[in-house]
Design brief:
globular; 495 residues; single chain; mainly alpha
């Protein structure tokens, strides 16, 4: 861990000691947003009972948060360029904390939903720019390790959320789950205001029409996926999907003409970026699909209780927590696409082994298969995220961060919806896991296609840091590299 806060001549990013408080602010902000979703899921029956509403209506306490967060990721990423990422991150944290207080005090579903939507907007502001802030805080030579730490935090949040929610509900009522964000949020606010890199906002207008198109496109897409996943009438889902496609077409037309587009077209001119984003989206389809499919497999097919099912999921995030930081560190030294591709192979093998799991299998047989999926995903995600961020020009880091967050959310939602479609037509749940394998296979194809490009970029980084092929790993030049020797997408600069 101390390696993340070391300083060498020629480093970009913040000086070593200043990184500690800055990364702690990012960790707390990410944890609150991630833990909130899984923790509140546990409280839905209690919310339905106390507010005297049906379980179907209570589900919107979670759904609305996720839809608003997903719909505003691109908008928030673009808006941060005008007001600066530090100011937007602080504003997002403040909104999330105030909305959490409002949710804790709500005594009607309507008021609770208003504050959940505001929480989703605050979460979008922090999550959309988090990866770009890591690139601004850490030098390029440590970016993989930093993103590995980010993967550990996200996985830890997903793993801890249900347990934390269940523990709190055993001693207090559900409003306290929202109140828990207050002390953590205030601490994160103080750290973010003090430690995050200061930068000037971009002069120029904001693409308001593009922002509206983005919100309609993504919001209607997630509503379509939600209705598909919950067995709503097919016509309703198709209507939302048609609206999303029309809005998407108009949005893309607008981006080609806007002076300050939300989604700069030149971002996708880099093949490494396109392939890394494609690999990410397809991998998250497999993960989102598996998380829902395994719940039905363990409980309906194998007869495990909900408590046992929760324990059977645990190896997945725990494996990511263990493997993710190691994979991120390795990605700073070797071709990241090799690590990502190996992780996808392991994820695919893990999903295939789960699809072949016999109904009479015991806990041990299930645990190692789930752990294999977690190891594979932990080996894939940090190196692939590093590829996404370093393949984008530094001045487009914020847009790349928004694309990365949006791709993850879209992939997960599509995976969940596919499970709903398969269950609606009475297909065996194992069939959905084979679809997850197919998604991982397509992701692997994208990852392998960018391997030569990633290898060439890796050599450029080594030469830029003074570590050519004639020098062994670990022996670096003590002299700062000349600016002209750097990769064209990795210019130094403090923010």
């Amino acid at each position: 861990m101390s390696r993340l806060f070391s300083t060498r001549p020629g480093d970009d990013g913040l000086p070593g000691p200043e990184r500690r408080l800055a990364v702690l602010a990012l960790i707390l902000g990410t944890l609150m947003a991630v833990v909130d979703t899984t923790m509140i899921n546990i409280a839905l029956p209690s919310i339905a009972r106390d507010l005297e509403i049906s379980g179907a209506r209570a589900v919107w306490v979670t759904n609305l948060f996720q839809i608003v967060c997903a719909a505003f990721l691109l908008v928030c990423a673009s808006f941060s360029e005008m007001v600066s990422r530090r100011r937007l991150y602080v504003a997002g944290l403040a909104l999330f904390v105030l909305a959490s207080l409002g949710a804790a005090l709500s005594r009607s579903l309507e008021l609770l939903l208003v504050f959940r939507a505001l929480q989703g907007l605050g979460a979008a502001a922090t999550l959309s720019i988090g990866p770009s802030l890591y690139r601004s805080i850490f030098p390029t030579r440590l970016l993989g390790s930093a993103l590995g730490l980010s993967a550990l935090v996200v996985a830890g949040g997903y793993a801890a959320g249900p347990a934390l929610g269940g523990l709190l509900l055993s001693v207090v009522s559900w409003p306290w789950l929202f109140a828990l964000h207050l002390p953590l949020g205030l601490c994160a606010l103080a750290l973010a205001w003090r430690a995050l890199p200061r930068e000037m906002g971009r002069r120029g207008g904001f693409d308001g029409r593009g922002a509206l198109g983005s919100v309609i496109m993504l919001g209607s897409f997630f509503l379509a996926m939600d209705t598909l996943g919950h067995g709503a009438p097919l016509l309703q889902s198709l209507a939302w999907l048609a609206l999303s496609l029309v809005a998407g077409y108009l949005f893309l037309r607008r981006q080609r003409r806007a002076s300050h587009p939300l989604l700069p077209p030149r971002l996708f001119l880099e093949p490494r970026f396109r392939l890394a984003v494609s690999a990410s989206g397809l991998a998250f389809v497999g993960q989102g699909l598996a998380f829902v499919a395994l719940s039905f497999l363990y409980q309906q097919e194998m007869g495990f209780s909900p408590l046992h099912t929760a324990w059977l999921f645990t190896p997945w995030p725990l494996a990511i927590m263990l493997v993710g930081p190691v994979a991120g560190r390795l990605a700073d030294r070797v071709n990241p696409s090799i690590l990502a591709s190996l992780g996808l192979v392991m994820l695919m093998l893990g999903l295939a082994s789960l699809a072949l799991l016999p109904a009479e299998a015991g806990l041990a047989d299930s645990l190692w298969r789930t752990a294999l999926c977690g190891v594979g995903f932990g080996l894939f995600q940090p190196p692939n995220n590093r590829e996404i961020m370093t393949s984008a020009p530094r001045e487009l880091s914020t847009s790349a961060s928004g694309v990365m967050s949006t791709t993850r959310t879209v992939g997960q939602s599509l995976g969940v919806a596919l499970v709903g479609v398969f269950l609606a037509v009475s297909a065996p749940v194992q069939a959905t896991l084979w679809v997850g394998c197919l998604a991982c296979l397509l992701s692997l194809a994208a990852s392998l296609a960018r391997m030569p490009l990633a290898g060439a970029a890796q050599q450029c980084r080594q030469y830029a840091s003074g570590q050519g092929p004639e020098q062994p790993v670990g022996q670096r030049s003590t002299m700062a590299p000349h600016p002209s020797s750097r990769s064209p997408h990795e210019h130094p600069g403090r923010h």
